[in-house]
Amino acid sequence: MPFSPAQSSARPADAAPSLADGVVTGAPNLILRLEGGVALALAAFGYARLGGGWLAFALLFLAPDLAMLGYFAGRRFGAGAYNAVHSYVLPVALAAAAWSLWQPIAVQLALIWIAHIGFDRILGYGLKYPDGFAHSHLGGAARAAGPTGP
Description:
The chain is mostly helical and 150 residues long. The chain is built from six helices and two strands; from the N terminus they run ααααααββ. It has helices at 5-9, 26-49, 54-60, 75-85, 89-100, 104-123, and strands spanning 128-129, 132-136. Strands 1-2 form a two-stranded antiparallel ribbon. The longest helix has 24 residues, at 26-49. It is globular, with a radius of gyration of 18 Å.
C-alpha cells in the first residue's frame, strides 16, 4: 500500500494526542541534543573567560526552571512561560544587548541561562506542548510521565 501524507496525520478528532506527536526522533534528536551540549560548553567557557564565579553559576543555573511555576496558572500558560524561558532567543538577545553596552554581569547571566538550556536539551527536556509538561519536542527524559504531566 503506498504511503500518503494524509494517512500519517489521520486521527479521529476526539483521540488524545499521542506522545509521539511533534516529537523529534532518531538522528535529528541526537543532533539537537549535541547542539545543547555545544551550547552548554561554549556558554560555560565564555562565562569562565569573563571571570564569572562558579558559586554564582551554580546558584543561578536552575533559575530558569522557576518558569515551571506557570503551570499553576494552567497547562497552556505554563507551556508558554516555560518555552519563553527555555528558548535561546531571550538569553541571546540579552547577551547581545549586554555585550554591546559592555555590561559583563548581564552577559554572565545570559551565559548561565544559555548553559541551562543546553543542559536541558542534553537531558531531553525540550520545548513543551500545551497538553502537558511531559509532552515536549524532544520527548526524552520527560517521556516517562506521559503526555499529561503536572
